[in-house]
């Protein structure tokens, strides 16, 4: 006979003689009294901390039974020595219940079963019906390797990392914008921008977001710390004090504040950033922790400013361990609170911080980011397939990365349900109250009075005020932070009174009158009303006991095919933009590793829409063209510069170079040679691949060679008649040197970081010689964000046996090369470093290669491009938004996507054929796209057959077929046979359209058969 009562156990209760909870046959959960103890039985002395732990234990049992707090029917609360004037339980039980209102009985008792227990709570819970199956979602209309939920910094970063590993993805964003909790609004007058959300970064320990700032051309404003700070005391008394000093407390109070500050700094530094562990500290609220360490009222009020300004919470509402770990994530309490170099509030962005998200989104291919697409359901259909429903569309994926804040997860239906540990994390995370109000004034009156604009208040409504001026825009702004209980009290005021309350406080803080006459406008946004952030900002926090229960990694550990990112999951700079970016990289790395797609590499360069030309050449430019050479013609994998252009960049960076003159005629060359006394080096200016130079005997020798190169329009030194004609010569001063090193800086793709390689060259000639011998080789890796380490320069100098003067010069040159490499987004740079007889270092023979994805960010650099020396088919393809790479065979390929292109080439090779090209038509495959693609391929006389291999995903196959038919019809009779293979959405309809087109197109559904037929047609066998 089945039992009518079922016991619900947790991992630490199975040995008890009673059950912590039971379920009756009527689907009612009866929870035994839960004391305020940790999972290991530790009971803190503090009553308020015990309240948090009691509610946590109650929540754990409710989740374990498959219910939620909103299913509670009745609560019984037993309190030892209940004091009606000190109802601390009410605040926390109300926050626990939210808007739910169950029946409740409070029972005062003289004692509980264990003397240290001060509170116990039991409950009756009505269990909901559990679904036997997940939501019946329709068939997926789009399929990806990864679906990313949220288009904030974490989600967009994850998308870049996933795509860089060769995986497909889509980013689903509920809002009508990207950016998440970064939201920049232009002022109504068009001057300046207001950041409604995250606003501050630094350039030292926040390397990821600082890299974004540089990448997207952000203009940074250093936070003003010149002048005094103002403190508003308990009684409203204000007193100024210098930045970096303590307020004007009495000596005993000052000593106590310093002791508590230093204690918190030491305690947070002792924690493991990623896996904080201390049961005793986590069992306490931060307030209880401070009081247990002897904090007086001023020290406690100071700490309250910390928790309010950083998280919008009171010290009584947050776990001491969570807060200390939060501080550790930003380098420590002092660093996170600092407004100076290295601090959390050191730099602001003139254009607004949303420029980061907008830049990341714009660098993704069109269609990757889907706005107005709130995710409603995530259904795990098998070990390998997950369906996601958003805005009426169903997506299929192998992995899901959610970057939404933990509290938002409750709004998504997961099937199966999230594991209890993840539910506990999501439901325990709560925001405090946190609102920024930006007040604009006609003048920076506080600066004029000798203040930096930073204030701290024990009473509010603004707990903290910061200068947020943009002098270049003539905007004089104070950002006022209304946080915690003081902020909530301000929010309850009528809207018309809120502005007045802040202005009145500012008048008090700086002792000014009639501030209304200086006031222009106030801008704010109530994040507590934003459902997509989980009704709060900047970062949710945890009450006592949760970290001890779950462990630090429990917040971010994947479960099944679901991975977690977002700033609250970060190990470093939790709650900041830096933390969001780092969390996106981490989650993407976990996904890529689990999909066996190779490790995600640290981000060095930004990917471009479609597959970039650099990536296309990396995939096909070597292995697929072993038998064909194009002497002198450079197929541009990225931007190459002519040598004289590279030399100008070196000079602009402060690196010494030989004097040189560009010439375009024999006469100009003769004049240049005369300026150098006939002793010079003559260098034809062509792209890498046929660069040569000749040391001249005299002016006549140079004039003769110039005439042969320029007037006869032959290749760069008559050894290569297929090379492009020489239009310019570079006449360079001849340098006498005694030592020479070839120095290169490039991306080390094995170690995922930049590398410097130095080869000492033994030569008896000048500037350049074919009689060279590489006698010593050295290399070292370095961090792109940190630059060339001084110890590496010292080490290389010792190995090369350099004098002190030459060593210093060597270091300066390396730093200059790094400046070019990082700021101009180079892929590789090479120079020959010459040590002259007077121990001066001069750089010659430079070869610079730049990332083609940087074109929008480096317009001046890319204006130097020499298209006349590139493969013209590639130039034309790029003009039409296509990616084309010339190869050595006779089958022209039109595909969409690099992965499919690789497979297509493999299939052609397998059947005995060779490809004439790689041409990526992109994701749209419109008539115009196909028209341009076919035109480029058919102008290649080597092409004997065309293979079109398209996978229809977002763009359906019937639409692709119509585009192919329209393009082929417009071109007229095809001079070579065409094979078309379509697969994907509506493929049958697409193939039927092609079969009925009467254009003589060979139609195949099978991949291998399509490749075989294209090979046979190219050989003339069919």
From TrEMBL:
Q: Where does substrate bind?
A: 481
Recall the GO molecular function terms of this protein's record. ATP binding; metal ion binding; monoamine oxidase activity
Database matches in SUPFAM superfamilies = FAD-linked reductases, C-terminal domain (SSF54373), FAD/NAD(P)-binding domain (SSF51905), Glutathione synthetase ATP-binding domain-like (SSF56059), Succinyl-CoA synthetase domains (SSF52210), YjgF-like (SSF55298)
The UniProt record lists the ATP-grasp domain at: 647-875
Pathway linked to the protein? Carbohydrate metabolism; tricarboxylic acid cycle; succinate from succinyl-CoA (ligase route): step 1/1
Enzyme Commission number, as recorded: 1.4.3.-
Record's keyword terms, sorted: ATP-binding, FAD, Flavoprotein, Nucleotide-binding, Oxidoreductase
Coiled-coil region: none
What cofactor is needed?
A: FAD
Keyword ATP-binding attributed: yes
Return the Pfam families for the record: Amino_oxidase, ATP-grasp_2, Ligase_CoA, Ribonuc_L-PSP
Reactions mediated catalytically:
a secondary aliphatic amine + O2 + H2O = a primary amine + an aldehyde + H2O2
UniProt binding sites for FAD: 173-174, 375, 568
Family membership noted in the UniProt record: Belongs to the flavin monoamine oxidase family.
Name of the protein described by the UniProt record: Amine oxidase
Q: Which organism is it from?
A: Fusarium zealandicum
């Amino acid at each position: 006979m089945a039992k009518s009562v079922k016991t619900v156990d947790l991992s630490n209760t199975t040995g008890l003689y009673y059950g912590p909870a039971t379920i009756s046959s009527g689907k009612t959960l009866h929870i035994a009294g839960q004391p305020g103890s940790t999972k290991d039985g530790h009971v803190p002395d503090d009553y308020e901390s015990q309240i948090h732990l009691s509610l946590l234990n109650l929540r754990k049992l409710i989740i374990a039974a498959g219910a939620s707090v909103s299913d509670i029917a009745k609560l019984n609360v037993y309190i030892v020595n209940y004091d009606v004037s000190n109802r601390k339980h009410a605040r926390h039980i109300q926050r626990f219940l939210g808007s739910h209102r169950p029946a409740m009985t409070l029972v005062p008792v003289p004692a509980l079963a264990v003397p240290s227990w001060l509170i116990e709570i039991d409950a009756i819970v009505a269990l909901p019906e559990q679904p036997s199956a997940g939501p019946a979602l329709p068939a997926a209309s789009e399929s990806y390797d990864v679906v990313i939920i949220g288009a904030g910094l974490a989600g967009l970063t994850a998308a870049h990392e996933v795509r860089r590993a060769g995986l497909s993805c889509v980013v689903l964003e509920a809002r009508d914008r990207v950016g998440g909790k970064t939201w920049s609004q232009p002022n109504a007058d068009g001057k300046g921008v207001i950041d409604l959300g995250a606003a501050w970064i630094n350039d030292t320990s926040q390397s990821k977001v600082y890299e974004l700032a540089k990448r997207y051309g952000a203009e940074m404003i250093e936070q003003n710390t010149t002048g005094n700070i103002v403190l508003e005391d308990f009684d409203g008394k204000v007193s100024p004090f210098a930045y970096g000093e303590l307020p004007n407390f009495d000596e005993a109070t000052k000593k106590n504040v310093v002791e508590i500050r230093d204690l918190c700094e030491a305690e947070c530094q002792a924690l493991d950033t990623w896996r904080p562990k201390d049961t005793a500290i986590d069992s306490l609220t931060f307030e209880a922790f401070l009081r247990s360490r002897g904090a007086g009222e001023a020290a406690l009020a100071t700490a309250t400013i910390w928790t309010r300004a950083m998280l919008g919470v009171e010290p009584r509402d947050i776990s001491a361990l969570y807060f200390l770990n939060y501080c550790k994530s930003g380098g420590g309490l002092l660093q996170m609170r600092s407004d100076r170099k290295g601090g959390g509030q050191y730099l602001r962005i003139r254009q607004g911080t949303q420029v980061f998200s907008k830049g990341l989104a714009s660098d993704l291919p069109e269609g990757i980011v889907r706005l107005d697409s709130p995710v409603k359901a995530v259904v795990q259909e098998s070990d390998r397939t997950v369906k996601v429903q958003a805005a009426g569309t169903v997506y299929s994926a192998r992995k899901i990365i959610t970057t939404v804040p933990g509290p938002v997860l409750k709004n998504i239906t997961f099937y199966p349900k999230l594991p209890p540990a993840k539910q506990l994390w999501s439901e325990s995370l709560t925001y405090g109250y946190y609102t920024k109000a930006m007040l604009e004034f006609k003048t920076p009156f506080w600066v004029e009075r000798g203040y930096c604009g930073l204030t701290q208040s024990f009473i509010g409504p603004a707990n903290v005020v910061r200068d947020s001026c943009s002098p270049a825009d003539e905007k004089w702004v104070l950002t006022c932070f209304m946080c915690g209980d003081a902020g909530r009290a301000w929010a309850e005021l009528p809207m018309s009174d809120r502005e007045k309350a802040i202005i009145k406080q500012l008048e008090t803080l700086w002792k000014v009158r009639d501030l209304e006459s200086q006031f222009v406008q106030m801008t704010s946004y109530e994040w507590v009303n934003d459902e997509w952030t989980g009704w709060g900002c900047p970062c949710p926090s945890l009450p006592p006991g949760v970290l001890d229960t779950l462990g630090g990694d429990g917040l971010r550990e994947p479960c099944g095919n679901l991975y977690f990112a977002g700033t609250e999951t970060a190990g470093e700079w939790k709650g900041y933009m830096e933390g969001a970016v780092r969390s996106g990289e981490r989650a993407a790395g976990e996904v890529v590793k689990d999909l066996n797609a190779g490790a995600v590499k640290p981000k060095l360069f930004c990917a471009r829409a479609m597959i970039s030309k650099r990536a296309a050449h990396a995939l096909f430019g070597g292995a697929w063209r072993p038998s064909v050479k194009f002497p002198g013609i450079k197929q541009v994998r990225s931007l190459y510069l002519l040598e004289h252009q590279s030399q100008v960049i070196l000079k602009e960076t402060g690196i010494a170079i030989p004097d040189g003159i560009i010439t375009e005629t024999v006469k100009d060359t003769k004049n240049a040679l005369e300026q150098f006394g006939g002793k010079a080096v003559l260098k034809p200016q062509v792209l890498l691949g046929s660069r040569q130079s000749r040391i001249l005997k005299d002016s006549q020798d140079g004039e003769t060679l110039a005439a042969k190169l320029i007037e006869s329009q032959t290749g760069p030194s008559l050894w290569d008649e297929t090379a492009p004609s020489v239009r310019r010569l570079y006449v360079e001063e001849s340098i006498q040197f005694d030592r020479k090193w070839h120095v290169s800086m490039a991306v080390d793709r094995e170690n995922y970081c930049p590398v410097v390689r130095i080869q000492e060259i033994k030569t008896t000639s000048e500037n350049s010689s074919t009689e060279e011998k590489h006698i010593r080789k050295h290399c070292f890796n370095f961090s792109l964000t940190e630059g060339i380490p001084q110890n590496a320069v010292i080490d290389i100098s010792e190995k090369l046996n350099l004098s002190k003067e030459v060593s210093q010069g060597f270091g300066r040159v390396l730093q200059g090369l790094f400046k070019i490499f990082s700021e101009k987004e180079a892929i590789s740079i090479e120079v020959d470093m010459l040590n002259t007889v007077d121990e001066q270092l001069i750089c010659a023979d430079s070869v610079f290669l730049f990332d083609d994805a940087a074109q929008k960010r480096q317009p001046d650099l890319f204006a130097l491009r020499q298209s006349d020396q590139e493969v013209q088919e590639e130039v034309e393809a790029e003009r039409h938004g296509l990616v084309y790479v010339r190869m050595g065979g006779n089958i022209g390929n039109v595909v969409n996507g690099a992965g499919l292109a690789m497979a297509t080439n493999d299939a052609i090779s397998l059947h005995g054929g060779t490809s004439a090209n790689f041409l990526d038509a992109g994701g749209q495959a419109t008539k115009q796209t196909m028209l341009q693609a076919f035109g480029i391929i058919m102008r290649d006389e080597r092409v004997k057959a065309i293979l079109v291999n398209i996978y229809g995903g977002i763009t359906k196959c019937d639409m692709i077929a119509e585009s192919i038919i329209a393009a082929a019809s417009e071109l007229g009779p095809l001079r070579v046979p065409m094979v078309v293979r379509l697969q994907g959405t509506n493929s049958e309809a697409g193939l039927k359209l092609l079969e009925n087109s009467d254009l003589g197109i060979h139609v195949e559904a099978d991949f291998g058969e399509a490749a075989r037929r294209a090979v046979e047609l190219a050989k003339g066998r069919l």
